[in-house]
Amino acid sequence: MRTASLSSDAGCLRYVSGKRRQAMERLGIHRVRDVLLRLPNRYLDFTNVVSIAYADVGSDATVVGRVDRMVLKRPKPRMQIVELSVMDDTGVVIASFFRQPWIAEQVHEGDLVALSGKISFAYGFKQLKAPFYEVVEQEGSSGSYARILPVHPVGEGISASWMRRIISAAIADAADVCDHLPSELVARRGLMSFARAIREVHFPSSLDAAEEARRRLAYDELLTLQLALLTRQHLQLLETTPYVHKVNGPHMHALLKALPFELTDEQKQAAREILRDMAAERIMNRLLLGDVGTGKTAVALVAIAAVADTHTQAAVMAPTSVLARQYAEKLGGLLESAGISWALVTGSTPSAQRTAIATEVAQGKLCCVFGTTALLSDNMEFANLSLVVIDEQHRFGVNQRSALRKKGSAADLLTMTATPIPRTLALSLYGDLECSRIKNRPRPGAGINTKVIPPENSDLAFGAIRDAVANGHQAYVICPLVDERDDGSELDDVPERSQSGARKLHAATTTLEELKRGPLSNLHLDLLTGRMSAEDKDDVMSRFSSGNTDVLVATTVVEVGVDVPNATAMMVYDADRFGLATLHQLRGRVGRGDVSGSVYLECAARKGSPARERLAALEATSDGFELAELDLKLRREGEVLGYRQHGGITLQVCDLDSDKDLVEAAHTDARIIEKDDPTLSSAMYASLAIECRDRYGAYFEEMDRA
Predict the structure, then answer these.
(1) Shortest CA distance to 558 belongs to which of 606, 607, 592, 596?
(2) SS3 label, residue 552
(3) Sign of the alpha-carbon torsion through 499, 503, 505, 510
(4) How far apart are CA 84 and CA 77, in angstroms?
(5) Closest by alpha carbon to 573, among 517, 615, 537, 531?
(6) Which among 380, 400, 374 has a CA at the least distance from the CA of 320?
(7) On the CB side of 456, how many CA atoms lie within 13 Å of its CA?
(8) Domains of the chain by range and CATH?
(9) Closest CA to 322 of 259, 266, 392
(10) E strands, 208-284, in order
(11) Alpha helices, DSSP H only, in 397-453?
């Protein structure tokens, strides 16, 4: 019964009622399980408390002392500051709390308080600005404080002390549950039991025990996600008959002969892995990872040729009409040379033409269809869809990806991305997919020189752009916003807000006009943003590709797929407002031909700041996978992939950077369990099945309904 109680409403717990319950719901805490897995984001280790006199200025420290004096100041009409003078036997520290007047009601002179934060020095005293505080002992009481105090993430309406009290009650009432992992697995992996892990992670006996408990819970998170993905896939495909593709037919031979180049060893290896899956009596689920310019599309062509030899159909979905059209222009001729029929469908395709294409697709007369989300329309029905190829797959919502695949009940799936993904991220969030990787470019190009510049040195970038155009080449100017009405909320979530976060960000529409009147006034400029119609985007890209436009002022709509080898220069405004993966993709638009590219990243942040250090990595390396690993250290996995915008699962406990061994272990164990019991229906895995369903069932149900 206690195990089942984890799914009970959090309102059944002590202290969770009324406004406090509403506050917890705003934090996403709805069930008892949510309460127990609301892990501390830090600990105050009172075994390492320092005396005020020995708290070093500029360092983080925890001090404990008596409140000697408390003052509520109002330096401005809307500014309230609570200032505490805290003393111990060695000295005094001044703690200041801004816009938190309620602290004056919670803390009183004579109370023993613990303060944790960065020590500074001003006006003759050591200072703590907005520190974390805890009332350890009220004046007149004989209380004592814990040796290690957890600090849980909280929000409006619930304090850290109340959250601690609620979690303590939940542990007492509901945490003594059966372990959902088989005892053999717990022993083999040397894991802490689930019940003990819950206790130790919230109220640890030592910091080492807290970390061991966190790792047990991180393993749980990874394993249950892997199993949920694999089990769902097995159940979905249980009653389908997979296609067994012919992988050595006449269309394949004709295509390989038509290619103007020989596949590299890495491309051949990826193609072999894909064709092996397509020829097997099981449905393929494969992710093809390849950095910018590594030739993933050539490998996808090989898969399409196998479809043609099997007399079935393939659908290739790209995130933008620009990329879809580029596919058609670059790959269409090769497909025709191999005798493979194809068509292109985007939002700008005329209605009559789209109807005609839909008719041919429904009749099975067309083998391959390139397109955007227009492929998802109800009137696009395939006669015999056996392969779905999704490029830049993280740009689509999970529901869109699922919707296309449903147009072929047993279709093989090949997803591709040029956004480098760390191995740990691929194993955890794409645990139901096999992975193929291409790291090296078939044609390295002339290379890219990346330089970070402050706004006052922007003339360096404009000079490089003018020189490029004078030498017959072209350039990009990238802006974070479309127009000045945007607030920047859709930008990549970077770890810090640097100085550019406080200044006005550049908008493409206004920047275009400023450049026309200013530093690039003698050049032909054009504008490309995601808000333009598909037809207008195609017109702009056509002019740029043909060389009629010197400089393309754009947003990140050019991040993927745009291939204009004549472009050799780029300037990115407010570069610190983009993630490393996005910037790496953007700079991959230049230096693709025989002339090296120059990329200038404009950033207002000071040298030595986290923003500048992050951008310095781009100056130091052009290895996309190395940058992806760094990006993962700086941001959560869902932010790296854009899941916040597109819907999906993010990990709450696991740190994919420090928990690499757990990712590998969970991936291996999930595959073993899935092979032993793919539906988790045996008695050994019954509790684990419940855990998977409780954690991720609602997510998958929502996705399946879409």
Answers:
(1) 592
(2) strand
(3) negative
(4) 21
(5) 615
(6) 374
(7) 2
(8) 4-42+167-204 (no CATH), 45-151 (2.40.50.140), 250-438 (3.40.50.300), 448-621 (3.40.50.300)
(9) 392
(10) none
(11) 398-405, 423-429
Asked whether 390 and 286 are in contact (CB, 8 A), the reply is no
DSSP 77-107: TTEEEEEEEEE-SS-EEEEEEES-TTHHHH-
Q: Is-contact 256 337, C-beta < 8 A?
A: no
Percent of the chain scoring above 90 in pLDDT: 45
Q: Which contiguous run of DSSP H or E holds residue 330?
A: helix 321-337
Token reading at 333: 């001729």
Both tokens assigned to 613: 């250090």
Mean pLDDT confidence for 297-322: 92
Mean pLDDT of 402-427: 77
Of the pLDDT bands very low, low, confident and very high (cuts 50, 70, 90), residue 184 is very high
Give the number of other CB atoms < 10 A from CB of residue 352: 8
Residue 438: strand pairing partners: 290
pLDDT category, 639, cuts 50, 70, 90? Answer: very low
Strand order, beta sheet including 434-438: 342-345, 368-371, 313-317, 385-391, 412-417, 285-290, 434-438
Could you give phi then psi for residue 120, rounded to 5 degrees?
Answer: -125, 180
Q: Is residue 656 within 8 Å of 428, Cβ to Cβ?
A: yes
Take residue 50 and report the two structure tokens written for it: 């320092």
DSSP 557: G
Question: CB within 8 A of 523, min separation 6: which ones?
Answer: 465, 466, 469, 550, 551
For residue 257 the two structure tokens come to 């002969």
Span 428-442, pLDDT tens digits: 666 667 888 888 877
Q: Full-prediction pTM beyond 0.85?
A: no
pLDDT tens per residue, range 104-139: 888 999 999 988 889 999 989 999 998 888 887 765
Gap between the Cα atoms of 250 and 248, Å rounded: 7
